[in-house]
Amino acid sequence: MSKSILVTGGTKGIGRAIIERFANEGFDVITCARNEEELASLKASLEENHALIHVLAVKADLSKKEEVLEFAEKVKAFGVPDVLVNNTGVFLPGAILDEPEGNFELMMNTNLYSAYYLTRALIAGMVARKSGHIFSMGSIAGLTAYANGGSYAISKWAMLGMTKCLREELKDDHIKVTSILPGATYTASWEGVDLPEERFMKAEDVAESVWSAYNLSPQTVVEELVIRPQLGDI
């Protein structure tokens, strides 16, 4: 029986790179995003290049609790995944004291609450199976405060805290929990920045790190994985 991976926000950037990496290993793929056309394109590409895998691609806005829970029901009908990557995220620049009203709520809903609600909805299946691996896509902004990144950093610090709690709660059920904490990665988030592409990490390198952390023996878990550009933070 083939294994499966769920990656939220999987149509571009790190999420898509993770999907491609696991699809190359024969994993069925479950993903969601807000853009229906991009989802259809991803699904078609995966099915064309990986004829033996099954793909579930669902349009969903995970900043909204009701859509998270609706998505979770579709996932459970497809089958609780072996790997869950809570990757959905949004970055809106701004300082805590003067950022636009609503930025905090949007980033907390998207970056943190979506992962909280989705994990809670799916975890019973992993516990019953006594196996699974949950990855949270954090950020070095969850380790170090940066100017003009107030609410984003708050959401990522909270994500790291939630992941640590999940690790403690689930270790006796043989479910692994890993925080991925990448630095600047060349994705759409950095479009327009006047820096050479070589200054950034590749999304494929983050995906390879996720695959490597997943691929360890059952008695070993990577709890936190910090990945930075060779020349340091941007």
Automatic annotation (TrEMBL):
As recorded in UniProt, coiled-coil segments are none
Q: What Pfam families does the record point to? A: adh_short (PF00106)
One example of the protein's molecular function in GO is:
oxidoreductase activity
UniProtKB keywords = Oxidoreductase
Q: Which Gene3D superfamilies match?
A: NAD(P)-binding Rossmann-like Domain
Instruction: Write down the superkingdom of origin.
Output: Bacteria
Q: Which family does it belong to?
A: Belongs to the short-chain dehydrogenases/reductases (SDR) family.
Protein's name in the database: NADP-dependent 3-hydroxy acid dehydrogenase YdfG
